[in-house]
Fold Shikimate kinase 2.
Amino acid sequence: MTQPIYLVGARGCGKTTVGVALAQALGCNFVDTDHYLLTSTKMSVADIVAQEGWDGFRRRESGALKSVTAPNTVIATGGGMVLAESNRQFMREHGVVIYLRAPAQILASRLEAFPEEGQRPTLTGRPITDEIVDVLAAREALYNEAAHHVIDATRPPTEIVEAVLAALQKAHAS
Ligand SMILES: Nc1ncnc2c1ncn2[C@@H]1O[C@H](COP(=O)(O)OP(=O)(O)OP(=O)(O)O)[C@@H](O)[C@H]1O
Ligand SMILES: O=C(O)C1=C[C@@H](O)[C@@H](O)[C@H](O)C1
Ligand SMILES: [Mg+2]
């Protein structure tokens, strides 16, 4: 592997969890744009949004995407990375984009168990487990448009990693 692999999908689909395991399986680096922003700004997503609004966060997130892009790297993106057309285009041009797809009901149950509110402040003013249905409906087309491969992310992380590796191998062979 030399091209970066970008994992996209809604909050709770497992981009960070699967990304760590996928990087381990491939023996390559792992970075996460949310974590990159946390360490480079020393502010949580909630802090950035409180100070700069969502527009400020989205600008920083687009910058983070460019900063972390490197060969031999699995990149877990933030759930809203696909909102900017320029980000979707950048990811498709610079690497392989994988959409980890899961229905809102499953996302809600994971987010309820592990809310991490500092990193996942409400997007709409409603509780995140309520808003996820509408957020996913509004973004589903963007995740699909960005993706080279769509992977069922309702399974355990080890199975998702296997499915991603199989998709990458199949694409390489063809
Ligand atoms: N395949 C899975 N099966 C069961 N639980 C999972 C799975 N993937 C992730 N989880 C759990 O769901 C929670 C959210 O996962 P994770 O943080 O990886 O999602 P994310 O896509 O990175 O979300 P965000 O967009 O907010 O960064 C975590 O607590 C994780 O343990
Ligand atoms: O879905 C979203 O818009 C977000 C997801 C998280 O990964 C963070 O990037 C942030 O909380 C925004
Ligand atoms: Mg994450």
The first strand starts at residue 5 and ends at 8.
